[in-house]
Amino acid sequence: MIVAAPNFLHAEYTLAALDAGLHVFVEKPMALTLEDVDAMVASAKAANRLLMSGQSQRFSPQLRYVKHLVDQGKVGTIRHVVHRRMGTGRGGDENSWFSRQAQSGGILPGIGVHSLDVLLWWLNDTAKTVFAVVQNREKHPAIDIEDETSLVAVMRGGTILNAALSFNYKAGTEWIVAGDDGVLHVGAQRDAVTFSGESLAVPSEVPLEGETSIQREFFTAIRDARPLAQAAGHEIRDVMALIFAAQESGRTGLAVEVQ
Questions:
Q1: Which residue, of 43, 83, 97, 117, has the fewest CB within 10 Å?
Q2: Taking the CB of residue 46, how many other CB atoms lie within 10 A of it?
Q3: Is 225 left (phi over 0), alpha (psi -120 to 50) or beta?
Q4: What is the overall mean pLDDT for the chain?
């Protein structure tokens, strides 16, 4: 079963499919509350069904190559990761469900789920605390979506995570992984990664567990009756917990512990 409905329906449709005994691929974000995410994970476990989230960035060759380099210890102990994803356009006008905060969840579930998932995946760690500024900069009175955020999180292993996301500025996308032994950088050039200023060509095949495309991973895991190698629901739960804690921080103006 593939759930590609609007965000606010993901939990309802996924739980119904799992209850019917189906494996489920649910588009990102998994759901709009941590309670719903936890219910989905628990239901998949109880039914012995696969639950996969649509974290397509994990299958980008460039980002997979960074994961491989990090796992091989290329940068040593990672101290700081920095990410920027700032583009114009949120994907819907005032008549779209995506322009309603209650139905879409805003920028953090919308694109932050991709960015933060990649960072946590690279670090193989979860967030402990987060402080975030979250704003609605849109001038249209019928659009209440959160469209601007900047956050700082501290991982349980001590690494600092810094991310800026926007639907309002054409500033591009950038990734930085800074460690004791060097710095990995990914910018606008799609076929390269730099290490401390030296360009590294991205190989056509990156040696990571599982398939090289998100669709093949889901269907191959079903065929082979094996666990998902990437983006299983129980793993993405940690990313969603960070997102909801960041939203709470944005509302309260306080640092929030991630559940």
A1: 97
A2: 10
A3: left
A4: 95
